[in-house]
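Summary: Need help interpreting a holo structure output

Steps to reproduce:
1. Submit the protein chain below together with the SMILES for zinc ion.
2. Request a joint structure prediction with the ligand placed.
3. Inspect the structure token block that comes back.

Expected: a single structure record containing both the chain and the bound molecule.
Actual: see attached output.

Input attached:
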Amino acid sequence: MPRFDRSHTDDLAEYIRLSPTPYHACAVAGARLEAAGFRRLREADAWPGESGGYYVVRDGSIIAWRQGGPVEAFRIFGAHTDTPTLKVKPRPDTGSGGWKQVACEVYGGVPRDTWLDRDLGVAGRLVMRDGSHVLVHVDRPVLRVPRLAIHLDRKVNEEGQKLNPQTQFTPVWGLGEPRAGEFLEFAAAEAGVEAKDVLGFDLFTAACDRPSYLGKDGELFAAWRLDNLLSTHAGLAALIAAEDAEQTPVFVSFNYEEIGSMTYSAAQSPFLESVLRRVAGGDFERFARITAASRMMSADTGNALHPNYAERHEPGHHPMPNGGPMIKVSANQRYATGAEEQAVFTAAAERAGIPWQYYVNRNDIPGGTTIGPLSGTQLGVLTVDVGAPILSMHSSRELCGADDPAYLADLALGLYTCP
Ligand SMILES: [Zn+2]
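--- attached output ---
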């Protein structure tokens, strides 16, 4: 039977529904922070010195913190806001054989077959002539990448679904001859602005299906963007709850993790360090002392044991849904975790009173990496990699345990409230 009341996971479902892109994820997070008394700061302004909760947003990445007295150390919980999907090309209006189509690039590691035959909306941001950013979210089916009928592809079950991303992965969005400018006009009209005033856009395909509980007792939870809004939402909830943190609690969720984190706002950029230096104040020596006393937890989803492919997992380490957050261990530091990091994790989990489990890759199947090693290396802060176990990572609909989002939020709060 379910261990928790489901209010945290219900709230995650709402956060995911409202956050189809990193820009939306930051806007919704910002609104929630403001409702809790936090104030938005602009990086180009002078910042107030008084106590309070603050946040900044840069290009789909968000950093929020609570400022009390002089900073002695940071307790940082990190995640990412982006998800593999399709990104609309600058001149998207295309078509073939009487179909209207939308030309897209592939953003990140998309398992292409999971985008087939899905009802897709469109979401993103428009940058306007006056410099303002307008969010757009067409939260209804508009696009679809149609699968080729099995009768025309008789060997698909034996040979697998192979899709050329340029020629066989272009969504349809209607019938007729394509007309240049039509897609942007559509997106602008949905946002209530004029296409002629749009100087730039970042538009993505967005799954429309609602998150839902699944399983005999509803013990599982299915949704798009669990990787990594599950962790973003957990850190946000923990920061809002962390009123009595002993050290300065910081929440960060970066854009662009899925494409390598090399942009001016991503985990390899100076964004986080720049904010922390401003929050800390003082000279280099003081910041070095604070850095040495600081701890970071980088949260990203990891792979739960797949029942149909148990042999792909490390046999002695089988993470399961609803077993609590995983500490991700990698001798080669694909994840930032050693003995000191383990101690930080265990202390936070004990403080939270939650179960936890190990994640280790097989030696012959190396896993991915995440923001932990990047931020840890960038900042020189002791960083531990953690995350909730999920199935179907990067699919257009992922699956996790219904209790694990709340466990991860408890772990984040445990980190924030550890001495
Ligand atoms: Zn991720």
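--- end attachment ---

Reviewer comment: The domain at 7-83+224-417 is CATH 3.40.630.10 (Aminopeptidase). The pocket of zinc ion is lined by residues 80, 227-228, 257, 300-301, 370 (CB under 6 Å).
Status: needs-info
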